[in-house]
Amino acid sequence: MADEGTQNQTQDEKAAKPAAAPAAQAPAVVPAPAPAVAKPAAPAVAKPAAPAPTAAKVAPKAALANPKLKQLQETIISANIPQLVMMSISLALDMRSSDIHMEPEENKVRLRFRIDGVLQHIVEYPTNLHPAVVSRIKIMSNLKIDEQRVPQDGRTEVTTKEGREMDLRVSTMPTVNGEKIVMRIQDKSRDIPDLPELGIGGRALKNIEEALKSPNGIILNTGPTGSGKTTTLYSALSRLNADGVNILTIEDPVEIQIDGLNQSQVHPSIKYTFASGMRSALRQDPDIIMVGEIRDKETGNTAIEAALTGHLVLSTLHTNSAVETVTRILNMGIAPYLLSSTLELVIAQRLVRKICEHCKVEDTVDADTIDGIKLILSKANLEGEIDPALVEGMKFQKGAGCAECNKTGYHGRVGLYEVLRVDNKIRKGIFTQMSTLDIQDIALKNGMLTLEQDGILKALQGKTSLEEVYRVSKKGEFEEAKASKKTKEAPVADGAPAPESAPAEVVPADVETETTENQNKDQNNLDTNAETS
């Protein structure tokens, strides 16, 4: 009987293969009925090679050719839940994904991977499989499988066939169509790149190296979630890691374990927080302390106390630029005189996708954009930052899309950096609570490059595209440059006089005198009322 059942199952699988073939080309892996691929009258299947209309942003052809994706599709068809979960994780690792999104919709569940910072549609599976998928992931990460009303957070560890250890941070969120699952992948075995490999060079690298040599003070790294702040701090700590120093880190979570560092993970549920961890760290005879994030006044005051007592403190913060970090800390309630005496360096950063080297082509940029970029770079001190010939040529590149980059035109990422070195002028500005714009003017005169300027330089060097630069950085300076150009080059009709400012309105002397007398009377009445009250 077992052999007969096996033969029947084999025959059923062979019979199902023709129907499953179109599914391997479209993200929806549920086998389409036979008539769906026969008539060109149906717009969704007019061309067998084209993706279905529900998958306008499907995994590219290179990803579809991935054998693991085909295995995942077959697994979904067979409804093998444990294998579906593991194949999703394995495929995500192969595609260099940082996050896995399982998002239930009304009639399907879509699976998306965040690759090089951008979400890409991979595949879809039926909604009736999703509860079992959620339960499987909850069991792996020690979450309550019967609790579906509130979000839950957990973690688990997996080991690939190649022996790579991965840490998965799992988050569930109840939605109207079911529970959404997001798994963040942390590769514990990956190497820590050095600062120049991250994309830091020129004066920015020199300023960071000088700050790391300081015996005490605070070094802050700012940027949004997923911008590479932790990797930058790990790279800096790798340079400081030596037998003669005691380095303590307080993290949430410990993403990469490094030999020579004493790494501790906070547990807010038992009141072990960044602030309490730092206070305990100060009793551990540290030379250098790295705290995951300064979230409140208590943590900020403890970090400043550590810096004042002779320790070098590294931490992160969430702000949009390096200069805005000063305002953010002051708004926490930190005294200006304490901040000005301890802050050494602020790094603001973003991650942009690198152009694929296999399909790099020259990009066409309009004249207005070129003129705006020239005005932006004219404000920057570019000595030692870039080859002057690249600035003169003003040529940009982009990726055409190929099999190596999954038809996206990008492969890998590089950082944009805005490094604020705190000198005496900036310390005075912090102490006197100067405005953000005034402090930024001082920093720019000292040679600081903004995120926008650093991005343009990397685009000129062919590392990324202008589109990527302005995807992650503000267009503030570019818009100001365009407005300045329009003001200077305002068109004047032939033979028409140049525009003049409107003449000042002439006020008769008697009217002016009467107005002044009325204002004086009003002021006297106000003074009299004030004295009476």
Question: What keywords describe this structure?
Answer:
single chain, alpha/beta, seven-stranded mixed beta sheet, six-stranded antiparallel beta sheet, 20 helices
What can you tell me about this protein's structure?
The structure is a single chain. Helices cover 40% and strands 21% of the residues. Residues 1-64, 499-509 and 526-533 have low confidence and may be disordered. Helix 9 packs parallel to helix 10. A seven-stranded mixed β-sheet has the order 9-8-10-11-7-12-15, with helices on both faces. Strands 3-2-1-6-5-4 form a six-stranded antiparallel β-sheet, with helices on one face. It is an alpha/beta fold and 533 residues long. It has 20 helices and 15 strands. The termini are far apart. A hairpin with a 5-residue loop joins strand 4 (152-159) and strand 5 (165-175).
Q: How large is the count of helical segments?
A: 20
Counted beta strands: 15
Distance between the termini: 105 Å
Strand content: 15-25%
Strand order of the largest sheet: 9-8-10-11-7-12-15
The helix content is 40-55%
Main sheet specs: 7 strands, mixed
Structural class computed from helices and strand pairing: alpha/beta
* Shape call: globular
Give the mean pLDDT.
82
Instruction: State Rg.
Output: 30 Å
**Low-pLDDT stretches:** 1-64, 499-509, 526-533
